[in-house]
Amino acid sequence: MPPLFSAGTHNALAPRRLEFDMAAKSQWLGYADHVERMLAPGKRLDPIRGFANKLPEHAARIAGVLAFVDDPKCITISRDVLDRAIKITDFFTTEALRLFEAGSCSPELRQAEKLLDWLKTTWQEPLIGLSIIYRRGPNSIRDKKAAKAAVDILADHGWLQKHSGPPAVVDGKSVREAWRIVREA
Predict the structure, then answer these.
(1) CA distance 118 to 162
(2) For the whole model, what pTM was predicted?
(3) CB 3.0–4.6 Å: which of 65, 127, 144, 171 could bond 178 by disulfide?
(4) Pair 159, 113 in one domain
(5) What is the tally of structural domains in the chain?
(6) Contacts for 150 with CB less than 8 Å, ≥ 6 apart
(7) What CATH number does the domain containing 160 carry?
(8) Residue 15 DSSP SS3
(9) What CA–CA distance (Å, rounded) separates 89 from 152?
């Protein structure tokens, strides 16, 4: 179909008005309310709030496209067309959640990564002990619980190996527990 232009112009479009029929409008309002509830803290859509708060608008736009594909001369969007648009929108929502979860990282893992970076760039000795991490390690890891958790994660991933054998010396002092730093994977 040729584009519709505003009267007296050859480059200003005059798109037709496209509205929901009564059943579709009611359904769209229900969908918007549902999305709003799912955006609450801790609810399903909270992690992708920036994308999800626009879902009703996306569903309406997709419904408009589907309506025109079905009937290029249409003037309303039916409930059936909106149902299909919501299914498409829900598919992309599920994908956005999947990608968010695949790219997210636990705070403990981030702390372990900070510690590993510090060990590789700052700490020069082959062994490390918890007391050194408390005193000189990254600021966010300077307590026993955080340091032990980060060390355990690095040990589980093969970046630290528990020292065994003669008593370990770290920073010129004998320590009860020490780990050998694996500098190359």
Answers:
(1) 18
(2) 0.59
(3) 127
(4) yes
(5) 2
(6) 108, 111, 112, 114, 115, 133, 141
(7) 1.10.10
(8) coil
(9) 42
